[in-house]
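Reminder: ligand-aware prediction takes two inputs, not one.
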Amino acid sequence: MSAAKKEVKKVTTNTLQRMKANGEKISMLTAYDFSFARIIDGAGVDVILVGDSASNVMAGHETTLPITLDQMIYHAQSVIRGIDRCLVVVDLPFGSYQSNSEIALASAIRIMKETGAHAIKLEGGEEVIDSIKRIVSAGVPVMGHLGLTPQSIYKFGTYNVRAKEEEEANKLRKDALILQEAGCFGLVLEKIPAQLAKEVSESLEIPTIGIGAGKHCDGQVLVMHDMLGINTEFKPRFLRQYLNIFEQASAAVKHYVDDVKAKDFPNDSEQY
Ligand code: KIV
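Here is what comes back for the chain with 3-methyl-2-oxobutanoic acid:
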């Protein structure tokens, strides 16, 4: 008789809602491939974001703008094969939802159908509300994203902290409520003052997930390549680097090159 498969308690949007209500912080990390998704899922992260930051850290582009819907689908399919319990949220890439709500819904449906992911995320407030409502009404969970929205980098001109001025802070407060009203199950707040993030988090029933938005958000998200030190050039104040994979991997690869050159690898026990 085969051993019974271990019951896995899967994270859902309802789980996140409950965590907020119970004051339990939500952990979210990006992933873009099968192998790291396995590590992240196994280590107990609640939510994996297949972020369009793949455009930067996987493809080497300067911004998130070039990545396509097909490429996001490829990354999401790989991540889904590596997870057992995480909720997997996939970014709608630039150009796949801004023009109108019909195109936005078609993009969201492609992601859900072709990847098996559990939710999508998109950037912006009032400007994209029709798209959000249409996607939500088709039964697809949507996560919002306010503050620094990297797909609008050429409008902002910099990656500096957003909403420091009262006018922009007021728009963000209003947008957060509109997104909740439209049915978003959660909201990423990127690079805004901690005090504003606290106020917004307390004013909403849905959980906020911060990146550079301080400790009062209901959860935190980081780009995996930044927190593991795969990427070492990016060192904003909000980033805590837990490892220096770049250094460790470089040393290991140099060691391998030295072994090959010295005819030390392979040795007798490493051949047939
Ligand atoms: O694409 C991404 O990685 C993101 C996070 C920075 C929140 O949107």
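DSSP finds eleven helices and eight strands in the chain. The first strand starts at residue 26 and ends at 30. We will return to this case in the review session.
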